[in-house]
Amino acid sequence: MQITDLQIEQKMWPLLRQAFRPMFLLGATFSALAMMLWLWVLSGAVQLPVFADVMFWHSHEMLFGFVAAIIVGFLLTAVQNWTGLRATHGRALAVLTTVWLLGRISLLFGAFLPPYVPIIIDLAFLPLAAILLAVPLIAVRQQRNLFFVPVLLLLALCNGLMYYGRLTGRFDLQQVGSQNAVLLITLLMAIVGGRVIPMFTANGTMTQKVQPIVWLDRLSLGSLWLIFALQITQLSSFIGAPIMAALYAIAAVLLATRCARWKLWITLKVPLVWSLHIAYWFLPIGLALYAVHYLNPSVTISTATHALTAGAMGSMILAMLARVSLGHSGRPLQPKKIMSLAFLLVIIAALLRVFAAWLWPAYTFDWYLYAGAAWVIAYLIYVFVYLPVLTTPRADGRPG
């Protein structure tokens, strides 16, 4: 970076120097706040003036508010390493962050607004992020990571389907939007996790990197693409429950085999690594629960979905937030010890939400409250520990 650019960089508010800074900080804060509000609603303590209803708000905002913010923050930060070009920062990042923030506010207070206001604001976020991601990738003709752009647009389509289903009274379309958003994010986690976990494991444990088996990786990701395609087009309803159960089971076995090769047991002294391994294990667990659901509906879609959301997404996001925030702020990859507690709490939250209510249904409401409380504490730990990291310049004096 030229000296004039560096001088401009040093005058810029640190929070706007890289996308991970505002997106991670606000996304993590919002996840804790949204979960607290959801728990208060469940307990009858408050009634929220949200867009549509609280069930829609909870499912939508944890996906398209919280998770989408983290995905965008990660991608718009990583693209600088991928391309060597300066990624989104400054005014462009401020605009993107403002659009995201206005979306959260307008949906939370949607009862006071015409329906089109929160919809238009919220639907603008992912396409805008896709454009900002596409520009540097196209500029250097980097095709390997260009597929993330249509993935963001597909995620925006799922968001639109949720709104369309809600406005037209088509609950089935609303479900198509939310469920396929979960599957698409699952696919992203499988892709990104497959790229980074073997490398992080080797670096963190000082062992040889486990080399990928090409056919296993292609079948694993291909099975997820196939499931997503069948679900988004609704062809899954025509091919029948037994076949869908088989497809989910195959995907679960393939991902479990892939994950087992990375040797979780050698990472137990490295919190930044074992947290990622356990998060990835929730992917085959969630897919296996989907398979069981198609054969035995007593295992609900909600249970399977929360294995992927509360389990895989919640755990992997927290682990990646802790690592990326240190690495991209020029700090050693040595998180504070309290982050191990945060990692454990979010895993406990997932286990309680997925399995406790299933095994001990008489205490379902209590398990939900305990799981939500563990989630809130886990993410608040991250926010308070990393607030100075995200709001101050890089420790090594470099731009970003």
From TrEMBL:
Q: What is this protein called?
A: NnrS family protein
- Spans through the membrane: 20-42, 62-80, 92-113, 119-139, 146-165, 181-201, 213-232, 238-260, 272-292, 304-326, 338-361, 367-389
One matching Pfam family is NnrS
Q: Does the keyword Membrane apply?
A: yes
* Heme found in the keyword field: no
Keywords in UniProt for this one? Membrane, Transmembrane, Transmembrane helix
